[in-house]
């Protein structure tokens, strides 16, 4: 039998006890992985082991697929009306809301994000996403199509069947909702793999699916590594669709696996190197607020982070000076402190990766304007970092760092900045700061990005589609568009007596 993780929190922002099963979750039950191995879960503030969870294997993926297919064939999909699925999704949202402090505390513990931001952003977004898709569950309508007087034709939006979902560690519960919400609303059953770094809130959510009343096998959660469980999901011949959020490098492997196996439907939400364009006619105070949020929110561990900050030459010196002072005020430290804005990077691996990027920037001749070093003496903390004097060939300008590191770049005219902003393999998001609406709309139309924020940054809503151009991915999360990736359109022709 798998262990249960029990943790008593006694912090300034939350006091209480959390109990989370640590097994893999298949067919409505928590069980040990097939090989009996475990994965340590580490607290990124000090590098110490919090607990351990069962390690899943490809054998467990097979078991989960069997359970999911059985549920799809008997109690889910066409066997449960959409309004009933919606009631279950809404009940799950209510339960997460009931335990929102517990979820926020666990996110702070194993991810390192601040309790305040976890509650305000991640958990609130997860609740809203499940509620949003609960409303969609009985509204996936087809169409009637006029062809001739001898025929009636209509379409049905049908669930695909068993789908696999692989999520990252930067927004653990929020990613659970982004994936489960549309998949379950459309009538699919799911095998979900959380990140090995942050599995606890996914397991907590799995526990609540039982309390909410989901039939066994509809939701399955398998802890594990990408090279084993993730690969098994991507290659499985009886999984009809895979949804992946993570790096572009791994996204290519997922797409390749689909091509080499059963051509399963694939949606990918991948990396980004988002431009943040600050024109000379902007409200500088507003631009400063959002520029800080754009790059340092979630410790820079955001695919849409505004990591390339383009500032018009006329205000460059003033903006840089004020941005520097604002960055010095970013409070780094304990995720459970009410004053903390930036916690640690999620793991030693991610800390090392970000520090290697900082080293490369120095080696390639960029100026470390601020930061660039470790923060504190333990854990995976990095100082908020600003580079200046950069050029397009530098890795810190072209590659996704996924940490609290931004580059500030001077520009002179609108055409120049659009060219520089689009000079990237990515196209996930962009921010534009200007008081001129014509300039804002004209620039947003020219940028190759799936999302354009005008006078704001990092704004996400359940009803608004999110995804990228170019190597930032395929398809869209959220909104009505996400449902398209979890349904197949069937055309039905009814003959009214016409002879061949």
From TrEMBL:
Annotated PANTHER family: ALDEHYDE DEHYDROGENASE-RELATED
Residue positions of the active site: 269
Superkingdom as given in the UniProt entry: Eukaryota
Listed pathway(s): Alcohol metabolism; ethanol degradation; acetate from ethanol: step 2/2
Similarity comment: family membership: Belongs to the aldehyde dehydrogenase family.
GO function term, MF aspect, one: aldehyde dehydrogenase (NAD+) activity
GO biological process terms, semicolon-separated: acetate biosynthetic process
Key words of the record: NAD, Oxidoreductase
Protein name: Aldehyde dehydrogenase domain-containing protein
Organism: Phanerochaete carnosa (strain HHB-10118-sp) (White-rot fungus)
The organism's taxonomic lineage, starting at the top: Eukaryota, Fungi, Dikarya, Basidiomycota, Agaricomycotina
Residue ranges of domain Aldehyde dehydrogenase in the record: 31-492
CDD domains assigned to the protein according to its UniProt record, in alphabetical order: ALDH_F1-2_Ald2-like
InterPro entries the record matches: Ald_DH/histidinol_DH, Ald_DH_C, Ald_DH_CS_CYS, Ald_DH_CS_GLU, Ald_DH_N, Aldehyde_DH_dom
Cellular component GO terms, alphabetical: mitochondrion
